[in-house]
């Protein structure tokens, strides 16, 4: 049985390229500690760092046939660890940005841009339907809903009875309910 610890990195790379598991084990033993110490500066979480190194070595084994043994094995591994760390940091940043954005939304409860556009469109539809009401009914409805006048105040301003105001408001609501649908109607009134 050959002594793998005496082989150079290049010789181990050739053996790894041929699928030699003992060569892979020697590469793992030779570089794991060095890569761990190097990467710990960037990622001081031991468990996360172990996961990163495990993924790098799994990748090395899975891609062993495509590795060029003439390339510098140490440089290849250091680059693989650096790239994996950068990918993890990018993923973590995206995750944190999403969480921050979601928390801001929960805190502010401000509608998103597309939601605001949909609300404007729905309001425009309602206003168009209100504009199609008969003139007297539209005026009474707008005074009631837009100006927040009571039925009595509307009756006093227009010199009509409170009963007429109440009837006009109810009729306008019935018409709008029919035209807009009950679910849509409940969103606004």
What does this structure look like?
It is a single chain. With 189 residues, this protein is mainly alpha-helical. It folds into 2 domains: 105 residues, Orthogonal Bundle (Rna Polymerase Sigma Factor, Chain: A); 76 residues, Winged helix-like DNA-binding domain superfamily/Winged helix DNA-binding domain (Arc Repressor Mutant, subunit A, Orthogonal Bundle). It is built from 9 helices and no strands. The longest helix is centred in the middle third of the chain and has 36 residues. The mean pLDDT is 86.
User: What is the number of strand segments?
Assistant: 0
CATH class of the largest domain: Mainly Alpha
SSE topology string: HHHHHHHHH
- Rounded Rg: 36 Å
From the coordinates shown, what is the CATH architecture of the largest domain? Answer: Orthogonal Bundle
Quick one: overall form? Answer: rod-shaped
Number of domains: 2
Count, helices? 9
**N-C termini distance:** 85 Å
């Amino acid at each position: 049985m050959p002594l793998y610890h005496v082989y150079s990195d290049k010789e181990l790379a050739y053996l790894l390229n041929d699928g030699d598991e003992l060569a892979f084990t020697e590469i793992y033993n030779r570089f794991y500690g060095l890569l761990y110490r190097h990467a710990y500066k960037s990622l001081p979480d031991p468990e996360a760092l172990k996961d990163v190194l495990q993924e790098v070595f799994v990748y090395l084994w899975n891609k062993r046939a495509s590795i060029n043994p003439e390339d510098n094995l140490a440089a290849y591994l250091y680059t693989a660890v650096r790239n994996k760390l950068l990918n993890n940091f990018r993923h973590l940043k995206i995750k944190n940005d999403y969480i921050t954005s979601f928390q801001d939304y929960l805190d502010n409860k401000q509608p998103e841009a597309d939601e605001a556009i949909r609300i404007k469109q729905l309001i425009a539809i309602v206003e168009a339907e209100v504009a199609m009401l008969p003139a007297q009914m539209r005026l009474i409805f707008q005074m009631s809903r837009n100006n927040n006048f009571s039925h009595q105040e509307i009756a006093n301003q227009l010199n009509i009875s409170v009963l007429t105001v109440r009837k006009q408001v109810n009729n306008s609501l019935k018409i709008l309910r029919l035209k807009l649908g009950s679910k849509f109607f409940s969103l606004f009134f």
